[in-house]
Amino acid sequence: MKHLLSFETVQKRLNMAKNNFSISKTFDWYLIDVMPVVEKYTLQPNYGEHGLYTHTAAVVFRGIDFAIDRSKNPISVALACAFHDMARINNKEDPNHGPNAVPLAIKAMNEIDGINNNMRDFITYAVKYHDSDLIPPNYIAAFSWAADRVRRAWYGGYHPKYFATPRAHYVASHVAADYLEFMRRNISEYARKIIELSEYY
């Protein structure tokens, strides 16, 4: 039985008008209504370099930020970010963890109301190829891939080709501590109790 709120209900509950989404409220929606479902199916650990409450949470936050900055609905971007590392079982190079995450993401999406076939296809594509060098075909892939690659830019070298918007370029080309401070200012007290904040995620 589907137990999550539909996108329409979520939007009403959080009082988010079209193109007027709040980073904090959208991130709380993810933590309250999506993360428990991801936790149910994911293979990744809760904490650490690719943890659900660490890295994935930070990627979701950045994806929401990038979408809102371009006046795009952040819901589908947040979902692609939420599902991207579901098949991560270690921190080694794993070129198959994107494709391997797809069936897990589909199980999660089956428990979320309001995902139409187009959205499902876009999210699935974004998850499957998030670790590739493909050119993102839509904003869902572009923003979720950029959100995941920010950490690499901070610690492995900034490569502009991976960042599709001025906001993503700005975040990736500045120091991690600056963005961590931005996160601290833009998450709720609830979020502070759930996730682990660190510039390394």
Secondary structure elements and pairings:
Layout (H helix, E strand, L loop, with lengths): L6 H7 L9 H19 L10 H18 L4 H10 L13 H13 L7 H12 L10 H18 L9 H8 L2 H10 L3 H6 L7
Structural class: mainly alpha
Q: Quickly count the domains.
A: 1
Indicate the mean pLDDT: 90
Shape: globular
CATH superfamily, please?
Hypothetical protein af1432
Tell me the number of strands. Answer: 0
> What's the N-to-C terminus distance?
33 Å
Describe the structure.
By secondary structure, the chain is mainly α. The chain has 10 helices and no strands. It has a single domain (7-15, 22-194), classed as Hypothetical protein af1432 (Orthogonal Bundle), CATH 1.10.3210. It has helices at 7-13, 23-41, 52-69, 74-83, 97-109, 117-128, 139-156, 166-173, 176-185, 189-194. α2 (23-41) packs across α3 and α3 (52-69) packs antiparallel against α4. The radius of gyration is 15 Å and the shape is globular.
Q: Gist?
A:
The chain is built from 10 helices and no strands. It has 201 residues and is mainly α.
Which characteristics define this entry?
201 residues, Hypothetical protein af1432, globular
